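Working notes for the structural subgroup meeting. M.R. asked for a predicted model of this chain before we commit to crystallization trials. I am recording the input and output together here so anyone reviewing the notebook later can reproduce the run.

Input as submitted:
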Amino acid sequence: MKKHPEQNEQFEAQLRNLPDTVNQSLAGLTAGTKLNNRIQMAVRDSRASRQKKSFPVRRFVSVAGVCAAAVALFVGLSPLLSSPANAPLIQSSPLGDKPTATERTLRADLTGSDVSIGQKQSVPSYRNLWSSSSDSSTFPLIGVNGSYYRMMTSPRSVSSSLLGASLGTIAEYTTEPSLSGTNVMLSNKAAVGTEVYGISGMSGTFVAADVDGQTRLFQRVSFNGNALKGSETLADVMQLSGHVASIELSGVGTITDTSVCADLISLLLNDATYESSGSLSAKQSLLIELDNGLVYQFTVKNDKIASCGTWSCPEFFEAFEAACE
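Returned structure, recorded in token form:
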């Protein structure tokens, strides 16, 4: 079908006047109800016009497309343009305000705060509380006459209310504690003269000492072939009975019922079999949170656990899994 000369002239005029048409159309736009009404009217008028005309209008469609895109841009900006000038883009609350449940969840792994395992999870991920040294192959430790304690990442500072009696002061600072004797109080982290304290009621399990201005927690572990001394048992190096608040086994579950936790700890202390003075290398952990806020850690591999020596106790893991069901 041939186009009439009048139609061609009309299209040419529309193209020439496009800049002015766009400026005039958009000059009065505001982000709000009026803009939405104008857009709806334009859509209805456009549909009615297309129903009346049967000839091709490809060049006009291109012009309409440009205008529609410009209008759509303003529609997208509408919420921003209509917002108060000083409204924050990221919501925050002043220091001291109580966070919402969602905020607490989001912050849990971001704040670097002390570890807590009291909140029940279906399948907790692996968490490692053992502190490591960036400039030595030996982990940060304190040796107390042949008993060795490894520094923990949590808590960042032990409350003075948890400190028991003084066990003495660091007499030797060494970067090679494996070469030192076992009849001395030494450390590769705490300075000479630093006071070492037991944790009240748990001196065979934890000690605490100042490191860089913070009272850090150290847990009894194996080191250099040294684990149990003399007639010691697991109960002597894991003095937790009556203090367990929750237990977390990574990849399995979390138990927060204190009576169930007490039964599991009793089972572990009574049935675990001592295998060696060595340790384990694995990516599974058993975390035991205490009623004083401290957390005790075992490394786990199959049905074995390790902290101060390596122990085997399949009955414990069977009972734990059953309690999680």
